[in-house]
Amino acid sequence: MDALHALIRDFSPSHTWIEAAVLAACLALAYVASRILGRQQPPDSVWFGRRTVDGLMFPLLALALAYAARVGVETVLLQPVFLLRVAVPVLSSLVLIRFFARILANAFPKSAAMRLVERIVSWLAWGVAVLWIVGLLPAVRAELAGIAIHFGKSQVTALTLIEGSLSATVVMLLALWLSSTLERRLLDRTIVDLSMRKVAANATRAGLLLVGLLFALSAVGVDLTALSVLGGAVGVGLGFGLQKLASNYVSGFVILLERSLRIGDNVRVDGFEGRITDIKTRYTLIRAGNGRESIVPNETLITQRVENLSDADRKFNITTNITVGYDSDVSQVQAILCGAAAAQPRVLADPAPVAYLMNFAPDGLEFSLNFWVSDPSAGTVNLRSAINIAILDGLRAEGIDIPYPQRVVRLQADAPPPAGPLQAAHVAQASAPPPTA
Known about the structure:
Structural class: alpha+beta
Helix content: 55-70%
Shape: elongated
Strand order of the largest sheet: 6-5-4-3-7
């Protein structure tokens, strides 16, 4: 409690007004500098945030200026400080909170659990700041250092575990921040192809996380030479139970590197047809036109037959079939079908829609209408429905019949007897006179 008594002893109303003015000047200077430096920065910047004050740069500059002002007042003016001494731990906690909050928001933008983590970090940071201000932090550290935890023959204190965990968390967050920054600022500008950009982003993130993990283990106190035993165990695990997992990860990098399948391609895999929306390290996401999404393991795309509907040509073909009566004019039906498709703005003019007489069906002439679009992700069922409605209206306007399925049975009284007993019974029943009313 000596530090708290010393802090209270240094409180002086006359000096505190001077310190308040100096602290206000430090905060104003930090805000102005942050505003000037963050003019052209994106709203998701870790340094400046959306409103300058919610980024990392403002509390960091304010902390540096406040600490410099505290040292200057104590050494140059030879005056005791109270407010600046309190401001340093408060601003330090704010820097830590902003660091965790901004990096977690960038690394996991859609995770609801990150809000809980941010609140926990905030409460812990403010608690440490209070202990720092009242002078109880050294006593708490000494108490934690006296708590020993035994792991076999090794002994680790609670203070070492807490400091190592904090160091490991900071290192891992820095690795995530660097990987996301490199992906947004460098890879997006230098690599045009989306698949190669994905490869570079995944490789960069994996490399940085590996380096961060090694630094984190070293900070916790783990001997890195013991990783050789862990590597052997992982190798045995890959040889037995993790073959499929490792195969999917390797297949993901193979797909991205050889670019046989790219993000945006329309493919058909095992009867499921859709557009590739993302290629991850373990699986590939394929979204159909009706909104359904299929999660396909990357090994399946390597070992099985996959139809790439947009590899050679980005145009997507859609067909619809219709049957008309045998007395219909073939040329007129083809003109109606092609006109109904060409009237839709999404249908490409080159190649133009074309209608073929496909089959002489039992009920009429069967036509197939082929047309092409360049945006299958906007939906194919809605477009096919609109064209079918236009075809129906056009055929009805021209008086062209769309026949119903029908069967004609002829009754012959003097027909020769059929060969089989089943057919004989059928003809006998069909040849019987109709019942009288």
